[in-house]
Design brief:
The structure is a single chain. The radius of gyration is 36 Å and the shape is elongated. Helices cover 29% and strands 7% of the residues. Among the domains are: 76 residues, Orthogonal Bundle (Arc Repressor Mutant, subunit A); 67 residues, no CATH class. By secondary structure, it is mostly helical. The protein contains eight helices and four strands. The strands form two sheets. The chain has a two-stranded antiparallel sheet with strand order 1-2. A two-stranded antiparallel ribbon has the order 3-4.
């Protein structure tokens, strides 16, 4: 009988990773470069870091106000406003209020992918992992990696129309119209926030002479049969692209003065008020 060798080395145990394992795929289109100074910032909240990454991925002139961001994400206006203040405090955003020639005040936001004055230590880039070598029997093809195509800038969406003059009755009509669209199609049941966002655009239609019934037919006609995942976006597109032209100015009609009976000779003549005709008026002597 063979004797056991107590000095034999034990079987090697498999190594269990104790942290994250990265599986990286090189992006060639639709990507955004984010610095580790932002992704690993020790003083910013996760909400602020994610919001900064989202803003840096947007095209130029995209809307990044609090209401637009709150409509896009579930955090709500309070948390988004706090995150924007964090990014301003650490130099990733600047926001200035500007007045347009029309008198409307807008907020101009500038996003920095690297805050000014931030010192980043120089590090050597880590080499990319090499692909597995093919068998020696097969010829190795030589291919040149194509250059990354430039990121296509998306055309910003036109803003929703707004009325030129405030109209409380028109706003109430627009709000009731939007809130009742689900009677025509249950898929058009809008949340209250979207009703208030789209109401000024409907008011602009009413200001241009469109009847509420005509606006309702335009918004509900020929809806797609597939499920509507974003009904508010569909309505916003129709309110913007199908906006009717402004009403033409009413022509000025010059009407003649009414007929009057002369108090001197009882002859009819035209004048704005009763009195004497031209022949019966006292003649004023010319000045010497």
């Amino acid at each position: 009988m063979d004797t056991q060798n107590p000095s034999a080395p034990p079987c090697a145990q498999p190594r269990i990773p104790r942290g994250v394992t990265h599986i990286n795929v090189r992006h060639t289109t639709r990507y955004t470069v984010i610095g580790n100074h932002l992704a690993q910032h020790r003083e910013l909240s996760l909400t602020a870091i994610g919001l900064a990454a989202h803003i840096q991925s947007l095209p130029a002139e995209a809307r990044v106000d609090i209401k637009t961001l709150a409509a896009r994400f579930p955090e709500g206006e309070t948390r988004i406003a706090a995150a924007l203040r964090e990014l301003e405090a650490h130099g990733y955003l600047t926001r200035t209020r500007e007045r347009l020639p029309s008198g409307r005040v807008v907020t101009h936001t500038v996003s920095y992918n690297q805050p000014r004055g931030l010192r980043i230590p120089a590090t050597r880039p880590s080499p990319e992992p090499r692909p597995a070598s093919p068998p020696r029997s097969a010829p190795v093809p030589v291919r040149h990696a194509p250059e990354d195509p430039p990121k296509a800038a998306r055309t910003p969406k036109p803003p929703l129309p707004v009325p030129h003059t405030p109209d409380l009755d028109g706003h109430r009509t627009a709000t009731a119209l939007l809130a009742g669209l689900h009677r025509d199609d249950p898929r058009l049941l809008l949340p209250e926030r979207e009703v208030h966002r789209l109401a000024p655009a409907v008011t602009a239609w009413l200001e241009r002479g469109a009847a509420p019934e005509a606006v309702r037919r335009t918004l509900t006609a020929s809806l797609p049969r597939e499920p509507l995942h974003h009904p508010a976006a569909l309505l916003a597109h129709r309110l913007t692209e199908l906006l009717p032209p402004p009403l033409p100015a009413a022509p000025v009609v010059l009407r003649p003065h009414p007929l009057q009976n002369c108090e001197g000779c009882d002859r009819a003549f035209r004048a704005p008020a009763p009195g004497r005709c031209r022949d019966c008026r006292p003649r004023v002597p010319a000045a010497a």
